[in-house]
Automatic annotation (TrEMBL), chains A, C:
Coiled coil start-end: none
GO MF terms held by the record: glycine dehydrogenase (decarboxylating) activity
Encoding gene, per UniProt annotation: gcvPA
Glycine cleavage system P-protein N-terminal domain location: 3-437
Biological function: The glycine cleavage system catalyzes the degradation of glycine. The P protein binds the alpha-amino group of glycine through its pyridoxal phosphate cofactor; CO(2) is released and the remaining methylamine moiety is then transferred to the lipoamide cofactor of the H protein.
Name of the protein: Probable glycine dehydrogenase (decarboxylating) subunit 1
Organism: Desulfobaculum xiamenense
EC number, as in UniProt: 1.4.4.2
TrEMBL record, chains B, D:
Glycine cleavage system P-protein N-terminal domain segment(s): 107-295
Catalytic activity, as annotated: N(6)-[(R)-lipoyl]-L-lysyl-[glycine-cleavage complex H protein] + glycine + H(+) = N(6)-[(R)-S(8)-aminomethyldihydrolipoyl]-L-lysyl-[glycine-cleavage complex H protein] + CO2
Source species of the chain: Desulfobaculum xiamenense
Keyword field: Oxidoreductase, Pyridoxal phosphate
Protein name: glycine dehydrogenase (aminomethyl-transferring)
Length: 444, 481, 444, 481
């Protein structure tokens, strides 16, 4: 029996000690009327057979394509040591560190993660993670709702549409008003946002760089929000945060991010990492686990889960959130990634990605009929307008093993001819050259 | 141990990245740039490897230590599942690839995993359909509660309350609350949901009852058929908290007995590692009538055998995750189900229950067992009695750490004083179970003769007991303070 | 600088402490006339670039073929836990356990390996490993030479020809006489061997199952050798040793094996594992490291390298061998493999492989013109005679991604039409079916 | 810790294998079968995982501990090299595949690795050709000695002796001896090969001189040019022991200065992990005139760019390995060379030398340094002096274990009393080097005040000092005794 180690003799002894004569007697409480009507599952297979089956499935996915897909989820290089270290059984097979004396490894790592993330985003506190970047925005918004006791949320349409759908779903039953302020040619419309944020607003939510790749300075917006008593929530791209004006500098109250770019593989959508940070003032509104430093009975430094009075296992329905399991091992990956690259390495990743994207933009806009959606500054991702349907361009190039980007019409009405193109440090000039040639060929 | 930041030296570089051809000023105006570099650790690659290798040695994990942590199902995490999830054919797959028509055939393997896993979970639990999107158990609860809300809204029902027994996991009321419900708590009786109390609480405003079965005392809810009838009688839905699923696989299908919604904790029952806190995966199954409300996308098999994502479900609650949930986690769980098969899953539950009962029987004369009858996959004991000289549940747990075991869950459920909740799982050998029992008995004996020794445990770990009050008061949450 | 962690400032400080003004001053002893005439190496690359290059090279090898190659090196399933456990840094990045207090992990593992291997081969002692199965045979032969002070070695031609070439190479300058006794239709010619072993013989060397897959009982041969004062050396296949009569039962003095089948991937030829065992009497003749059990100053059990007086770092040219680095991590793999499978699992691996081979033999000999080279009992490998050149058969099938076996003419004159076909538990009936069909198609 | 065998339970099964359709009697006659099953451990998979996880924690490795073990070059082993060698495109490749004509194109990637690695090693060392076949350093020495023997035999030279300085690694004389040579040892003078002594020993029967340079004292052989001339003067060949190659990359090419044969220890200089004793890889390079004697096969690049194996070398010494050496090891070394490039290798040597000199200078006032001048990548100190109160080199090493460092090499080379040979390598940060020096100074101070404490170290490891005499006398070599 896989993973059940008892011999027949041991099973007999154990049943005898328990005082039952058969396994099924242990389930006497489950009456006959409650037993399964069917349990028509495949037979168990050996490890060898299952691995062969899973390898066949993996082979059905085509990953040796050159892809310019991004849209918030990026294919950065992951140093091998990230896997080596985070896969160690002592990290991977531990539970949530409820027994701190036997969990200092996990606890110190989370503490270090909180520190690194706080410094990267220039915020005062971070939690130990939530599920993903989208749920982090929801939780951030709710912090604003709790802190202000207001119900109106102002959201930029240049916030990832994926996350905006998530927010709409999550808030359905909460009696909140979600106001979406349209983007302007792929730019976040700061003036319109300022106009929309008033003294009934709980929080304003923006993204930097935004979904179209454009970076902004939101200082004025956040100043305005503070003046009218609203909270400022910003979602960022951690890699670009090595360069861009920080949430802290802009005066954000809560800054969140999808942490996938910090050492998580794309893995068809997860597991990823919801990063949450806030000002010290807001920390008691923050959901999720938080680790604090303290001392043991001998005065030695140690780490514990703290501020647990916010959490569901203590507060039940009065908790700040229902989050229990989080993405701890992903947070560890992010910490190891940041440690391995250091500030210099991470900045170089950001710059290489930006450089590749600008080269791509230059090459693509040299194709007659292709233009940038906006001439505002962008980082490693940009939107172009094509003379043909972006869907069609994507479909036709994809057939040839080349995914030129994401068709914006998927989420934005009116942008059916627009394509969102992302680069990372993994792209080469050759990749970009082929992209430009293929696209040029299609359009001609 | 020094932190990474204390070990950092300005200017040191780890993994070298080629110097880019550009600088930030080439592409971004100054007002968009940060004024100072983030103070991230600057370490050599070996320093980083050594730091985390050493840090890891401060942890207990299932791979190194018996972990009888009640309610957490800390079973063995088979290593081949990690190899499966690390295949580049999965790890390198961009989730949006599946949403491009032309690239849909690039993701057929991944979509097949989703589709097949949904079907397997349906068959194990007798539900009509599953979503793999929820990213943890509590996220599954939230998803389930939102589906319940959507169902009642669609029917035009005005239902504002969810009933949660006092023995439930704290996430139950928290999740239902975040889905917009008011929580009604009912008191247990004899370790069971009290049908009378339930009946009293059940009115037309009740949208659902959330049940844990076996409950958090490790006992099967004997009044289950009655409860199902009562709940359905007021047009409420019955929710199954799957945290304790490891007790019943092959013995009961929650769909067959009348549960309308169920979530799994794949990182418990289906053996994916807990990772020091996550990531998990919390798929949700529903009965036929709730299918229209499941989150989108749904994976669909076409007649020609191809798999596609289907977003055309107007009554859907929408997106619970950016894409398709923690794919890398449920891929492992899928491999686990294939490995065990139906018989293996049944044997897992049987042996989990056997192990819990074996420990219970071996301990019953040494520590108070409040509900001392056949339990399911876990049971609770209670560190009460004068001969313990004031040694508390927490102390026993700490003393177990010294013996190389992780402590059982302590002080949960709240309804048992000085509670120690023990869940051995099916993957521990009899030798380990016996050694654990013997060591716990030794500690109980020591409590009689030298209680201070137990009260000051652990003595052999990297730290002794930590000052939690100070942590909460002084709030040192980063290395900057 | 990859893996050199010093900052410029630290380098400056260190140079200053040392009292030199530049790096190169440290190399003043290497005069200008000794400096490199050229050092025309490629520039360093990032981890990402090197991995991409290595992945491209890996992709140039075609491994998704169905292959019946064996010839002593077999594609058995390796449980995932073997990699997980042996790759732990504490094992992989440790040196030879010269400091036993800080090396009990490695030392106990070797002690357990010695125990497991001794039991599997039914011998009294084992060492911690040598390079591979071939060098193990050489070392075993030399044990016989030292023990008997004789110079004549009798070797069966059914011993792997690869190893026979190695033995010839290794002994070139040692003044030994190597007598090769021909095989008989792929069988080890025991009678001829007995006739060749006399009182001038240092050792007789046989293999079981032999290169053609046939198993034998060598008890009579080894009895005879003992009578004339010669030593008996046998090389075995560890997986088959779960079933076959053991070296111990047959009365071998030294038993060796290639341990690749115990959890080592094929990896294009290495690293593999040279297994060496012997009787207690011979242990002081055995080369390589040996771990012994002892106690510490507090009476606790512990493990140390022992009998080091045999080794080169003590004895220099008088050592029993020059072996220093061995295959320790491979020995650990073998131990983990054996522990994971246990005696029952290993036996099942052997039986499944045998079953598949007999099924294949049945299917192949059903092809008109194809026959077994011998009707003697075989295990998981067998030789067939084709009506066409085996080279041609292999080449033509290989083009279609199907490697039907090893053409025996490569090493045996006169067997140009013979093919050596190996099966393991990884083969399916379907694989065998295709093999038979393809071969049948070729011959028709 | 209990052994696997003590933990075993008869009848328990680990990784389950499907029951085969046959039994042994179906295919093999009884007289060929063993009479009893081997008593291998019978454990559950989790038991095995836990056993080895716990065992590993009893070890020091570079990943967890500074390892300044002289002569062993315990540098950081980059993790991406492990990923590279684990690619299925390499691990699943049967070595015989390359010897089938039709399948030759199935192994082009692997053959390219061999070919390119040979070329890279040629350029790093200035040799004419390499073989990758030797499976460890000592195996390379043997290969080199056999090539030397074959060369002289081919020339008709009657040469029976090999000269080895007394400071050489023990493998040098052992390897030359196994290649059939008589060993002549010569004494060092002032830590160097004594040209006078060499001259005296050099006669027409000398086939070769084996040199370690820098030598085992960490000193560069200042008489090198003179030695080369003398050796070649009697038609002998000069052998370079590559164990200390980490000192000279980019600074000297052994081929350029007149060495005829050289071996590498890739598991030292090129950063492949030592694995607790192996596997290593010991490629051998030769000058032009020795090329015909290299082992077969040789890898050859055809004009069309394809790679093939070439066995047509009639003067070859034959097979040193069953196939092409420890491919999986030198694949990692290949990745390492690509990663570092020429400049990186030079910097590695420079910084290895800098680190050794830095420690030497910081220690010189605290411990006797017999040859206290600029050293190469390592240096020797000597635990002599009355103020040490009889604390010996071994004791200092053991006390360092307590501080979390692996001990330096002790009592080697034999020519220095109470020798501690310290090789820090280039991958350790200055902070680590400083901490090590500070801790060693503390131990030296403690030797003055509390020598017994040092003499009984280690105190904090799983065991204290072990009784080696008892181990050798009682000879418990398996768990059966």
């Amino acid at each position: 029996m896989p993973y059940v180690p008892h011999t027949a003799e041991e099973t007999r002894q154990m049943l005898e000690t328990v005082g039952v004569s058969s396994m099924d007697e242990l389930f006497a409480d489950i009456g006959p009327e409650l037993r399964p009507r069917s349990f028509n599952l495949p037979h168990g297979k050996s490890e060898m057979e299952v691995m062969a089956q899973i390898e066949r499935l993996a082979a059905k996915n085509k990953v040796d394509v050159v892809s310019f897909l991004g849209a918030g989820f990026y294919d950065h290089h992951i140093p091998a040591a990230v896997d080596t270290l985070t896969s160690r059984g002592e990290f991977a097979t531990a539970y949530t560190p409820y027994q701190p004396e036997a969990s200092q490894g996990t606890l110190q790592a989370i503490f270090e993660y909180q520190t690194a993330i706080s410094r990267l985003l220039d915020m005062e506190c971070a939690n130990a993670s939530v599920y993903d970047g989208g749920s982090a925005i929801f939780e951030a918004m709710m912090m604003g709702v709790r802190a202000t006791r207001r119900k109106r949320l102002v959201i930029s349409e240049a916030l990832s549409p994926i996350y905006r759908i998530m927010l709409a779903s999550y808030t359905t039953n909460l009696g909140l008003e979600l106001v979406t302020v349209p983007h302007r040619d792929g730019n976040t419309d700061i003036e319109a946002l300022m106009a929309a944020v008033d003294d009934t607003t709980a929080a304003v939510v923006v993204q930097n760089p935004n979904f179209f790749g454009h970076a902004h300075d939101f200082t004025a917006l956040f100043d305005h929000a503070r003046e009218v008593g609203a909270k400022s929530v910003i979602s960022v791209y951690p890699i670009m945060q090595t360069l861009l004006r920080t949430p802290g500098e802009m005066g954000a109250d809560v800054a969140v991010a999808e942490g996938q770019s910090l050492g998580m593989p794309l893995s068809f959508g997860g597991p990823y990492l919801g990063i949450m940070t806030c000002t010290s003032k807001m920390v008691r509104q923050m959901p999720g686990r938080i680790v604090g430093r303290t001392v043991d009975t001998q005065g030695r430094t140690g780490y514990v889960l703290t501020l647990q009075a916010r959490e569901q296992h203590i507060r039940r329905q009065k908790a700040t959130s229902n989050i229990c399991s989080n993405q701890s091992l992903c947070a560890l990956r992010a910490l190891v990634y940041m440690s391995l690259l250091g500030p210099c390495g991470m900045k170089r990743v950001a710059l290489s990605s930006i450089e590749n994207a600008h080269y791509a933009a230059k090459r693509l806009t040299a194709i007659p009929g292709v233009s940038l959606m906006s001439d505002a500054p962008f980082c490693n991702e940009f939107a172009i307008r094509l003379p043909i349907s972006a869907y069609e361009a994507v479909d036709r190039m994809t057939e040839r093993g080349f995914v030129p980007g994401f068709p914006l019409g998927r989420y934005y009405e009116g942008l059916e001819n627009c394509l969102l193109v992302a680069c990372t440090e993994r792209h080469t000039r050759e990749d970009v050259g082929i992209l430009a040639e293929m696209l040029g060929g299609l359009i001609r | 141990m020094k932190t990474l930041f204390a070990k950092s030296t300005p200017g040191r570089r780890g993994v070298c990245i080629a110097e880019p051809a550009c600088c930030e000023a080439d592409h971004l105006p100054a007002e968009l740039l940060r004024s100072h570099a983030p103070k991230l650790p600057e370490l050599g690659e070996l320093d980083v490897v050594r730091h985390f290798t050493q840090l890891s040695s401060l942890n207990y994990g299932v791979d190194g230590n018996f972990y009888p942590l009640g309610s957490c199902t800390m079973k063995y995490n088979p290593k081949f599942m990690e190899q499966a999830a690390a295949l580049p054919g999965f790890t390198r797959l961009h989730p949006l690839m599946a949403q491009l028509k032309g690239a849909g055939h690039f993701t057929q393997g991944a979509l097949e995993v989703m589709y097949e896993m949904e079907n397997l979970l349906c068959e194990i639990t007798g539900m009509a359909a599953y979503t793999m999107h929820p990213m943890a158990g509590a996220h599954g609860e939230l998803t389930g509660a939102m589906i319940i809300a959507a169902y009642h809204a669609d029917k035009g029902n005005r239902k504002t309350k969810v009933i949660v027994p006092d023995s439930a996991h704290g996430t139950n009321p928290a999740s239902a609350h975040i889905a917009g419900f008011e929580i009604v708590s009912i008191e247990s009786r004899d370790g069971m949901v009290d049908p009378a109390a339930l009946k009293e609480a059940l009115d037309d405003e009740v949208a659902a009852v959330m049940l844990t079965c076996p409950n958090t005392l490790g006992l099967f809810e004997r009044h289950l058929p009655e409860i199902v009838e009562m709940v359905h009688g007021v047009d409420a839905l019955l929710y199954y908290d799957g945290a304790n699923m490891n007790a019943i696989m092959g013995k009961m299908r929650v769909g067959d007995v009348g549960f309308d919604v169920v979530h799994w904790n794949l990182h418990k029952t289906l053996a994916t590692p807990h990772g020091g806190g996550g990531p998990g995966s919390g798929p949700v199954g529903v009965c036929e009538k709730l299918k229209p409300f499941l989150p989108v996308s749904r994976v669909k098999k076409l007649e020609d055998g191809r798999f596609v994502l289907d977003y055309d479900h107007p009554k859907s609650i929408g997106y619970m995750a950016p894409f398709y949930g923690n794919f890398g986690v449920y891929l492992k769980a899928y491999a686990y189900v294939l490995r065990l098969g139906g018989e293996g899953l049944t044997r897992a539950s049987e042996n989990a229950v056997l192990a819990a009962n074996y420990i219970r029987k071996r301990l019953e004369e040494h520590i108070h067992v409040p509900y001392n009858r056949i339990c399911m996959h876990e049971f609770v004991s209670s560190a009460v009695g004068e001969d313990l000289n004031g040694v508390r549940a927490l102390d026993l747990g700490k003393a177990l750490l010294d013996k190389g075991y992780h402590a059982p869950t302590v002080y949960f459920p709240l309804i048992v004083p000085e509670c120690l909740m023990i869940e051995p799982t099916e993957t521990e050998s009899k030798a380990t179970l016996d050694a654990f029992v013997d060591d716990l008995i030794d500690i109980l004996e020591l409590s009689k003769t030298d209680p201070d020794n137990v009260k000051t445990a652990p003595h052999t770990l990297p730290v002794t007991r930590l000052d939690e009050t100070r942590a909460a008061r002084q709030m040192v949450l980063t290395d900057d303070v």
